[in-house]
Write a structure and sequence with these properties.
The complex is a heterodimer of chains A (about 325) and B (about 260). With about 325 residues, chain A is an alpha/beta fold. Chain A is built from eight helices and 18 strands. In chain A, helix 3 crosses helix 4 and helix 5 packs parallel to helix 8. Chain A is elongated and about 60 Å long. Chain B has one domain: Rossmann fold (3-Layer(aba) Sandwich), CATH 3.40.50.620. Classes of the chains: A alpha/beta (about 325), B alpha/beta (about 260).
Chain lengths: ~325, ~260
């Protein structure tokens, strides 16, 4: 069996979990393996149908009111008991903030190694092989995971969603046996970030600014551009973040986030190695920069040499026109 | 408060990474090595906790003799003690192997602690595995990717970063915390600190001292190959009046890239 952990945030399934489930189903079919999904929490059973629609043949629901809020220890305990019982051959999670936190803890409890944040997974002679970027994408490493169950987390926003099928299957509900002492790292409050609802790791379009933006107030121009476009978020280079023009949550690059959106637009970003590492796996890259020798132009599919402050206003109007059509 | 910080020596983030395909390693010549940036936030946070509630900061690293450089840096920043766990084996990119070494070290040699601090990930392996694995093996609460930490007697509160939001977590001590950028602004070493760090003895512990068997240390992620990422070809670059440039750019996005 290939088991996929499905993450729920505020009553909704994370898209990255459905991407992971879609990819898991594809691999499981290739290996003649059953695909199952597992939910943890309380009041999550209404979401099982969504997991069936994206490829799960079976859905496990581990309930405990103590787990209504995320706790790495508590969730590990709940998942561990199920895995000991059903013994899946493969266990996947999305490499979201929660997946990155939970998967290694669960792996340690199972005494298995884990391949984190994989960008490719494939079957080779019956064994699973993964590719994961190292050095923020400056190199790619291929691995076989030699412990069982084979554990991997998959990078969000990269694996395509399966076509939704209106199917159903067996739902198995279990009371998760987790004591209060085992959920002693529970989230007590979720704090929303004003204007940062869509994280750059989940955005399909990233509008990024660098030192050429000259100051924090000019990032509003990028926010306006991103508000015109669907699923867009504002990113930044390290120098913009270090100058405190924008929060580090928005930083792209080696000490920020590695992103692979459909479109990456770089304004006033010269393209330092550590920045390029974090964004060169984007599908399309567009750059606007005054300096014709800026390294960013070496990776851009379309570059504009010019003053971004002069290019952005007409760009905004043109974009509006096309989007409204 | 007894605070342990775990740090790693990594290539500078400005480095180009070249690959030795024959041996599946990165080529270390010409690389400049630094204290992994997230680990630097962890060291700084340890010093701040010590300044607030008192105690002692001990810094550990696993690696070759050269890793002493990053321990010296932590000492120069103000850490009280530093210990090197000598490991000359090549990078295995397997977090569990490292977590087992650290957990054994703590259980057998350093059983008294209140706070274990890490960087959220090493720059390089990019695994973000070790803190959570150590927490599980030692049965401790964990908060990873932390941008704010408050420690008070025998408990703490931390803010951790998630997608587009933050989570507040309360936990008892001892606990495992991993640092994210934004947690603090690491201090520079002082001249006095550098002089003291120079004189400071760094004890060595071998993997044999920890009684770890070869089997326990064998990585279970089998590295098949290492590659450079596919090179991107430079596309079209134009230099025109802003209005014309904007038009052509949008046309590219709409007709060629088809992203809008």
């Amino acid at each position: 069996m290939l088991l996929v952990y499905i993450e729920v945030r505020e009553g909704k399934i994370k898209k990255a979990s459905l991407e992971t489930l879609s990819e898991g189903k594809r691999l499981a079919d290739e290996m003649n393996m059953e695909t199952a999904a597992v939910f943890v929490g309380s009041e999550v059973d209404g979401l099982a149908s969504e997991a069936f629609n994206f490829g799960a043949g079976k859905v496990y629901i581990l309930e405990n009111s103590l787990l209504s809020q995320y706790s790495p220890s508590g969730y590990t305990e709940a998942l561990f008991s199920l895995i000991e019982e059903i013994k899946p051959e493969i266990l996947f999670m999305a490499a979201t903030a929660m997946g990155k936190d939970l998967a290694p803890r669960l792996a340690a409890k199972l005494d298995v190694s884990i391949a984190s944040d994989c960008t490719q997974v494939k079957v080779n002679k019956g064994e699973l092989e993964v590719v994961r970027p190292i050095f923020a994408g400056k190199a790619l490493a291929s691995f076989r995971v030699k412990s069982s169950p084979v554990m991997a987390t998959l990078r969000p926003n990269l694996f395509p969603l399966a076509e939704k099928a209106e199917v159903t299957g067996e739902t198995i509900k279990k009371e998760a046996d987790v004591g209060d002492d085992k959920a002693n790292d529970r989230v007590v409050e979720v704090i929303r970030m004003e204007g940062n609802e869509l994280d750059i790791s989940e955005a399909e379009i990233i509008i990024s600014g660098g030192r050429g933006m000259k100051g924090p107030e000019n990032f509003d121009m990028l926010r306006e551009l991103s508000s015109i476009l669907p699923n867009a978020a504002v990113g930044a280079s390290r120098s913009a973040v270090d100058s405190e023009w924008i929060d580090h949550q928005n930083q792209v690059g080696q000490t920020g986030k590695t992103v692979s959106p459909d479109l990456y637009m770089a304004f006033g970003i010269s393209g330092a190695i550590q920045h390029l590492a974090g964004m060169t796996s984007s599908k399309f890259i567009v750059a606007v920069n005054k300096d014709p020798d800026a390294p960013i132009f070496k990776v851009a599919d379309f570059g504009v040499i010019g003053d971004l402050f002069k290019v952005i206003p007409p760009l905004k109007e043109e974009l509006k026109k096309v989007v409204e059509e | 408060m007894n605070i342990f910080v775990f740090v790693k020596r990594v290539p500078d983030t400005e480095s180009k990474i070249r690959i030795d395909r024959e041996n599946n390693t990165i080529i270390e010549e010409e690389l400049n090595f630094i204290l992994s940036p997230y680990d630097e936030y962890a060291v700084e946070e340890a010093l701040r906790v010590r300044e607030t509630v008192g105690g002692k900061v001990t810094v550990f690293s696993i690696g070759p003799d050269e890793a002493k450089v990053v321990l010296k840096k932590a000492l120069a920043m103000g850490a009280d003690e530093a210990v090197l766990i000598k490991d000359d084996s090549p990078e295995a990119y397997d977090g569990l192997r490292i977590a087992k070494i650290i957990s054994r070290l703590i259980k057998d040699k350093y059983p008294g602690y209140d706070l274990l601090l890490f960087g959220k990930q090493s720059v390089g392996a990019d695994n973000a595995q070790v803190p959570a694995m150590v927490a599980e093996i030692l049965g401790l609460p964990q908060v990873n990717v932390v941008t704010k930490l408050d420690i008070d007697d025998n408990k703490g509160t931390a803010i951790r970063e998630i997608e587009g939001a933050a989570e507040k977590v309360s936990f008892p001590l001892p606990a495992v915390i991993s640092a994210q950028k934004g947690l603090n602004e690491p201090r520079y070493e002082t001249l006095k600190g550098i002089m003291m760090a120079k004189r400071k003895e760094i004890p060595l512990i071998s993997l044999q001292d920890l009684g770890l068997t070869e089997e326990e240390l064998l990585p279970r992620l089998e590295l098949i190959k290492m590659d450079s990422p596919p090179a991107r070809e430079a596309g079209k670059v134009i230099e025109e009046e802003p209005e014309d440039a904007a038009k052509k750019l949008v046309e590219f996005l709409h007709k060629e890239a088809k992203v809008i």
